[in-house]
Amino acid sequence: MAFAEKNLTVLPPVEIDGRHIKRYHVTSDPAGIEPEVAKAAYALLPELLPEPDGSTPAASFTVLHRGGDTGAYLNVYSWVWDNVLQFAGAAAGQPALDCPDLDSTHFVRLDPTVRNWIGCVWELAPLGHERAAWVRHMLVPEAPDLTAYLADALTTGTTGVCA
């Protein structure tokens, strides 16, 4: 399988149940992810977020990836325990991941006891940036700056090829 670059779109953060969520979309389609796929994915998002731990600012980031077939994938990375990422995922339209059908809007939560995958090469593109942004704005300063962290995102472009 040859590597083919994909488009990365950065969307404004949203707040759900007091948790601030940065959002990234990944797709090979220049038109972006279909609105109905995004709507279905984000409808499941509250179920994928952890409860606040009482000490870590409630922040997460998501990567919604539209595959080249019927598959769509929602990866949710949440900051917990001050400096740890918790992962939860969902998929739609991908029978290999135990989705019940080929409907790219029918998202089901992935069972971490069956597959504890955290993302494919395209979905992992934001992780390095998000780690650096968390350190830069939340851990290094004397007082954490959640507003600065939420504003610090990758730029819309491509997922990037590593040298």
Summary of the model, kept short:
This protein has 163 residues and is an alpha+beta fold. The chain is 21% helix and 30% strand. The chain is built from 3 helices and 7 strands.
Annotation keywords:
single chain, 163 residues, alpha+beta, 7-stranded mixed sheet, 7 strands, globular
Stretches with pLDDT under 50, minimum 5 residues: none
Structural class of the secondary structure composition?
alpha+beta
Distance between the first and last residues' Cα: 18 Å
Name the helicity range: 10-25%
Kindly estimate the percentage of residues that lie in beta strands according to DSSP: 25-35%
List SSEs in N-to-C order. Answer: EEHEEEEHHE
Secondary structure: number of strands: 7
List the helices and strands and how they pair.
Layout: E1 7-16, E2 19-27, H1 35-48, E3 59-66, E4 72-80, E5 84-92, E6 108-109, H2 125-139, H3 146-151, E7 157-158
Parallel strand pairs: 2-3
Antiparallel strand pairs: 1-2, 1-7, 3-4, 4-5, 5-6
Q: Please, could you describe this protein's structure?
A:
With 163 residues, this protein is α+β, with helices and mostly antiparallel strands. 21% of the residues lie in helices and 30% in strands. The chain has 3 helices and 7 strands. The protein has helices spanning 35-48, 125-139, 146-151; strands at residues 7-16, 19-27, 59-66, 72-80, 84-92, 108-109, 157-158. A 7-stranded mixed β-sheet has the order 6-5-4-3-2-1-7. A hairpin with a 2-residue loop joins strand 1 and strand 2 (19-27). The longest helix is centred in the last third of the chain and has 15 residues, at 125-139. 32% of the residues are buried.
